[in-house]
Amino acid sequence: MHHDGPGITAISAQIIDLYQRCYAAPPWSETPEQLGRYPAKLAAGAAKPGFSALTTTDDADRLTGVCYGWPTPDELSGNRVYDALVTAFGLPAATALTRGAFEVVELFVHPGHQGQGIGARLLDGMTAGRPSAWLITDPGAPAAGLYRRLGWREAGPLPAGFYPQSRASVFTLTHPDA
């Protein structure tokens, strides 16, 4: 199901619960403090211009997967993620990676539903019709294998310590005919 910002806010409690279930476990192993910051991050994201989300549910209407993001703004400053991109790649390369691209901010699937193609369907649906997209993940995480199978390319690592529990790398996708 497709959602805009207000639509995602209406189901935010379910999304927060699923996020905590997914990100408390390895490879992310987020701390209680990190998990506690997620509700505010979700609310701030839902308010961004161009916010878009896709969700899936099971037969009992329980949330099984979430993917969301927004178009990357032209101005890459004043934000921890964008600052890390500029540090890692330099301003011209970071701009080339993100200009006109859709920023996939989150993709997570209930652990009991992983391996069923939900993540691939969500990611494909979120990036369909967009000329390019990018995301950040641990290149050794199981999801990185999915991204590679779907045609995403690893552009390179972010500075050490960007994500305290693991490495972080930028992955990009280009749709030449979009």
Q: Helical content, roughly?
A: 25-40%
What would you call the shape?
Answer: globular
Distance between the termini: 22 Å
State which percent range the strand residues make up.
15-25%
Low-confidence stretches: none
Calculate Rg over CA atoms: 15 Å
Question: How do the strands and helices of this protein lay out in sequence?
Answer:
Layout: E1 2-3, H1 5-10, H2 12-23, H3 32-46, E2 52-57, E3 63-71, H4 80-89, H5 91-98, E4 102-109, H6 118-127, E5 132-137, H7 142-149, E6 153-157, E7 169-174
Parallel strand pairs: 4-5
Antiparallel strand pairs: 1-2, 2-3, 3-4, 5-7, 6-7
Structure described in brief:
With 178 residues, this protein is α+β, with helices and mostly antiparallel strands. It has helices at 5-10, 12-23, 32-46, 80-89, 91-98, 118-127, 142-149; strands at residues 2-3, 52-57, 63-71, 102-109, 132-137, 153-157, 169-174.
Structure description:
The chain contains 7 helices and 7 strands; from the N terminus they run E-H-H-H-E-E-H-H-E-H-E-H-E-E. By secondary structure, it is an alpha+beta fold. Strands 1-2-3-4-5-7-6 form a 7-stranded mixed β-sheet, with helices on both faces. Helix 6 links the parallel strand 4 and strand 5. Helix 2 runs antiparallel to helix 3 and helix 4 crosses helix 5. The longest helix has 15 residues. The radius of gyration is 15 Å and the shape is globular. 26% of the residues are buried. The model has no long low-confidence stretch (mean pLDDT 93).
